[in-house]
Amino acid sequence: MNRLLATAVAASLLLSSSFSVFALETNKISPEAQSITRESVKKPHRKFYRCNVEKWVEQGIITQEQADKWKMFNKKYEEKIKQEKDKIRKMTKEERRAYFEQKKLEKRNYFDELVKEKIITQEQADKIKEKILESHKNKVKR
After folding, report:
1. What global pTM score does this model have?
2. Cβ-contact 61, 124 below 8 angstroms
3. What is the tens place of the pLDDT at every residue in 73-101?
4. Comparing C-alpha atoms, which of 110, 107, 108, 106 is closest to residue 129?
């Protein structure tokens, strides 16, 4: 009986050590795989209002002067959003809820603001929206 017990213990130790060696060898990561991080694979997040205005100039939808004004508008728009986020962070939960309820009613549109600031015309805004929608449809079809 003692020999049987000793044999079983020895066999289990032998098997467990071989499994741990196998696990150590299969968990090795190649140097190429180590260089790939989540951040390097991650695509940059683009906001809708960061349109490639140069693309619209090349297509003849807007002029270079309008593109320059648009870029300046984007800088101001981003600053405005930063300030708004800071303001929201300082609010209580109830204040935030009321603030977002009010924002829902406003329904501002980025392109409407561009037209209101007289950077582009309504026709140009409609053309650009149409082009953006076309590009989104083409991406979905792939």
Report:
1. 0.54
2. yes
3. 989 888 988 999 999 999 999 999 998 88
4. 110
